[in-house]
């Protein structure tokens, strides 16, 4: 788990534009999530009055207006797909699909067209065009984002081998890998995130239903983060080890951010359809929490190289103070251990390797061996996975103190094209080239 983690508050995208022509279908009965929001408060009061004891127990004590969290909306038609530079979302679903037997380029194009139309509608706070489940009728957009990518195997399945990026070559094996191949890779990948669990689930069901007979789910992983507003002021999130996890991520304000995270227009090694896109590495990293929690706080801090209380480097200062890699204690020992995770994963210790992390935590109950099955759904974004994730993970593989307490159990690499322009669907420049 490289240290460059995701900041809690990256800039939000502006409001969504008007509906895309030819994609938005008439809403059945004139009912939309947006229209329902105006009557939700009154309906809640009526139920509370008429429902007696049941209504009192099930409903809030008083009606509340739609909060800013529910009203936040992310645009679908943007330069880079949504779900990359937005801040951490409270709930997420990662899903990989394989194309069905006999499905090819034509079916894939139709599927991406359906998926894009559904994503645009739901991100704008509208209902699905057909077969809406009603799960999110009384909720706002809640910062919903839906992001689409292509796996290595997609290109052979669709006869587009010549368009497959070299950067999609399989990731190398690492000594910490204990990979379940059935929960790795896939032809297509979808990332869903929102600040409301029901809004996220609603989008998940809509995407699964839209797949129809064209694709089937290969694997699905469900995650969560701290809910925005849960702390007295915005701050870096913590992971399930209790460590602040979001200190050294590259920031959009940095002058070289775009070239490190997104494929530039003048790229000599990437196909034209990947311009403004990015490469996502997805890893399910199980945290061996039973072992980790036996360590003292001091021992945990030595493993990470940062204080648990405030995320500051052991060399001193605050969370954002540069780490002093040469500082020693009274005995002449390095204050930040030579194998500390934060030291090894620093960009300046890896040739400037940069990746933008947007992880989710997960908890899948108790494993068959009786241990807690919980950890991190690691998602990182970069213009070049070989120079980004692979460079850092190879360094970690050779001596990261944290490796004793984590296990990489699934893996995937996906090419995520740039955002769809008005009137386009995601991946159209590849599928209709």
UniProtKB/TrEMBL annotation:
It is found in: Cell envelope. Its EC number is 1.11.1.-. It is an enzyme of class 1 (oxidoreductase). The keyword Nucleus does not apply. Binds 1 heme b (iron(II)-protoporphyrin IX) group non-covalently per subunit. Involved in the recovery of exogenous heme iron. Extracts iron from heme while preserving the protoporphyrin ring intact. NCBIfam families: Dyp_perox_fam (TIGR01413), tat_substr_1 (TIGR01412). This is Deferrochelatase. It comes from Streptomyces asoensis. The lineage of its organism: Bacteria, Bacillati, Actinomycetota, Actinomycetes, Kitasatosporales.
